[in-house]
Amino acid sequence: MPKITDAATAIKQIKNGDTVMIGGFMAVGTPENLVDTLIEQGTGDLTVICNDTGFIGIGIGKLIVDHRITELMASHIGTNPETGRQMNAGEIKVTLMPQGTLAERIRAGGYGLGGVLTPTGFGTVVEEGKKTIEIEGVPYLLELPIKADYALLHAKVGDKAGNLMYHGTMYNFNPVMAMAANTVIAEVDEILEDSFLPPDSIHTPGIVVDYLVKKAW
Amino acid sequence: MIVTRVAQELKPGSVVNLGIGLPTLVTKYLPEGITLQSENGMLNMGPPAPNGEADPYICDAGGKKVTILPGGCFFDSATSFGIIRGGHVDATVLGALEVDQNRNLASWMIPGKMVPGMGGAMDLVVGAKRVIIAMEHCAKDGSPKILKQCTLPLTAANQVDLIVTEKAVIEATEQGLILREIQPGSSLEDILQSTEADLIIPEELRG
After folding, report:
1. Do B76 and A171 touch (CB under 8 A)?
2. Which of A78, A99, A176 comes nearest B120 by C-beta?
3. Any idea what the Cα angle at residue B72 is, between residues A58 and B48, rounded to 5°?
4. What is the pLDDT of residues A197-207, one digit of tens each?
5. A3-115+145-214 placed in CATH 3.40.1080.10
6. CATH code of the domain covering residue B183
7. Is B10 within 8 Å of B91 (Cβ atoms)?
8. Which residues in chain A are contacts of B59 at CB distance < 8 A?
9. Model confidence over A23-42: pLDDT tens digits?
10. Has residue B189 been placed in a domain?
11. Is B52 part of a structural domain of the chain?
């Protein structure tokens, strides 16, 4: 059973220097309350793994603008010009990778795999420093798993068993990140404290969710 | 002219992913029966939401609030890129900074200047069955974008199938770039002058 608590209590355990996965695509599916709380409590020097850095003032963009991230793994930073500025100024280390590769590396981390083989990036700068393995005449890059200390997710509904249901394009990286972190904190719009979601409508199984926080603003 | 010509390439019944920018404009001219895939996790994407009726949790790959059509579905990024890499997308339409005669595409960065990241483009170009490039024939300064060899970091090697510009429709093949159509308002001379790559000119277009 997850602990049902408020954002400050759930986020308190995250310390300077931790590695944090944050769900969301262009800020849809990003837990804004959890991100705000991380900023309020002053945590910094974070390694953040996410698809994109949102926009200035929205989503993960808030952590960038406040200089809380020293290392970033993402697929796209174009919608938040501040990320590019910090990267060019040497204030933040950014590793960019194809979006499908990012999803599969996180999935590998959470699914107990030693890596994945993908054709994406072959013949480009993405292949630098990676093993190429040929299978039935097709070259694939070996991409290694990614894990994190924490995953911060956003779902539509959570039940008292921790089961999560997303809505719309909120899913994106949330379901794979839920599997790939030591501690999972989910912000949800609605908590069913006395009942359960229908077993057929669950997108992330509750056993991987450690904390449920109701979205409060 | 570019977007209407690209729309003609998309056949009813196919699954299509449109890139950000110029390719998105193709949406208006799509034939009936196209299923749009959005890499952030949606099939059967619909038009932008009417003012005041947007669902804050449904956006397209550019972050714009959109709708979903009947029969559509939502899914996570691993599934989305499984659909893309797994060959379940019939065609993708993307913009480009450079394309070359070896079917290479450069579209994601200008070192030292513009590094937005590749997003889903590298997976789309490798995974989609047909890669259609929709772009202006030349760069803003007038320099050619269709080259013998790309100078910028590649998005993918040997994947481009068709290039549609305001001047020409060019098929990219193992044999090289074949000029298929001269767009209204352009001419063979104009195309040859504004293209660095070697073009194969079929007899019927030699004038």
Report:
1. yes
2. A99
3. 45
4. 999 999 999 99
5. yes
6. 3.40.1080.10
7. yes
8. 25-26, 28, 168-169
9. 999 999 999 999 999 999 99
10. yes
11. no
